[in-house]
Amino acid sequence: MTDTHPAPAVEDAAVAEVVKATEATSLEEKSVHVHGPDCDHDDEHANDEEQKDAPQYRNDFDLLEVNGTKDKTTDPLVKNYFEAKELFAKAMERLDEIPEGAEAELIEKHKDEIVSVTSDLMKAFLLDEKACQINQRILKLAEQYEMYVQTHNPEGTSTATVDSEEEGAESQTTIYTRDSVVFVIMILWTGGQFEHCIQTLTFAIQEFEPIKGRMLELRANCHMALRNFKACNEDLEEALTVEPVNVEIHSTLGNVYYATHQAQDALYHFKTFIQVAHPDSRTLPNAYYALSTLTLQSVPSGATKKKSNQALKQAALLKEAQEYFKKAQDVDLRFKELYGVVTGFNDIKKTAFQAFQIRTAGRNGLISTDPAPALLEASEILKKSFKNPGISSCASCGRPDNVANEGRTAEQKPKPLIKCNKCNKVAYCSRPCQISHWNSAHKNVCKK
Asked: How far is CA 230 from CA 223, 233, 355, 407, in A?
């Protein structure tokens, strides 16, 4: 592959930001702190020289080991993570025995070890990318493996012709294997080079059918990091058709649709998720909290007669919303039992607590035995906060804010989305998105 040279590992801040905004649960550490990519402080406990190239495992699943509860759950994602982590660690031990260097003689002498280690590292990455961390030695292994592929043309090698970016230059033919392509993806992913990673993932999706679902999921996360939520959702929806067993995708889709104010789609995916999710899924509490508020905001307004159809529907939905909130608290307790910490107060959980707990007091200051009036009031507030998706997000890419806000300080007033000045019914994050959407669709339906 051209234009996919190994890049130095950098802190994955872009993914951390998006995950923090849309991921199902975040952790509120107590006595134990697991450093993650969104930490804004130095690790005062680590020796820089010893740790700079060491893999830093940052997944919440590591807390299961800290808490001694890893064997108390059958969650398949936990199994995948620790399997990937063990595979990665053992491959790194074998990698230490391979001398560095790209000389032909060295590659020839250690070709079997180079191929074996590369294969296991890629298997680990495909199992769970969070169990794998790039360091300088892995980057050098990438060079060694690439030289091996180009020199030996092993079984399973294919070729691709890529047009050069330089004007007048001839097309280039690249030799690749599945592992060499996944290796490039691993490097670009860890380095936060999401636009280049999308290009390579797109190639892998077209070329390698057995890992298509996994590649779609990774590409969706790249789109998410770049705030292209429309493309993110399209990839996730397709990944579900390829791998229906990957039920956690429903949770991710629910979060993205929730964040972009598309309530009905969010409801569908969260409901589908809770029906099929493992009871110990770390994203399950968040799904129930989201369902509690989404159901509450769907409660109809204006029921005047106690036994009217409107009033009966109100009562049924209020009960359903309360049951979701109670279930969220129950699975939250199970989460704490396993992980030793509580789920953090992300926006979804905070909104649920504000609706179902803070507003239970009556106007006289006493706790009401009938929560319905307070919940109906909360429902109306939620309806106002969940704006029309056509206005609250870009009609072209799904981004919920103006791209011009990037880099603006907190003191500067944010710039709103750019509304269509003809119909005022759709909005865009940027002029390029507005032009693209106008030419592809909106000009045919736009009315003053």
From this structure: 8, 5, 29, 23
**Residues whose CB falls within 8 Å of the CB of residue 185, separated by 6 or more in sequence, listed in order:** 125, 197, 200, 201, 204, 215, 218
DSSP state at residue 171: P
**40-81 residue pLDDT tens:** 333 333 333 433 333 334 478 999 999 999 999 999 999 999
Residue 137 belongs to some domain of the structure: yes
Cβ partners under 8 Å of residue 147, min gap 6: 102, 104, 107
pTM of the model: 0.77
Q: Is residue 357 part of a domain?
A: yes
84 and 158 belong to one structural domain: yes
27 bridge partner residues? 343
Helix H or strand E segment including 158: strand 158-162
Per this entry, what is the length of the chain? 448
Please state, in angstroms and as integers, the Cα–Cα distance from residue 204 to each residue in 114, 168, 211, following that order. 22, 27, 8
Do 335 and 414 belong together in one domain? Answer: no
- Provide the residue range defining the domain that includes 67: 13-192
Number of domains in the chain: 3
Top-confidence residue, 357 or 26: 357
Are residues 147 and 105 part of one domain? yes
**Is residue 24 in some structural domain?**
yes
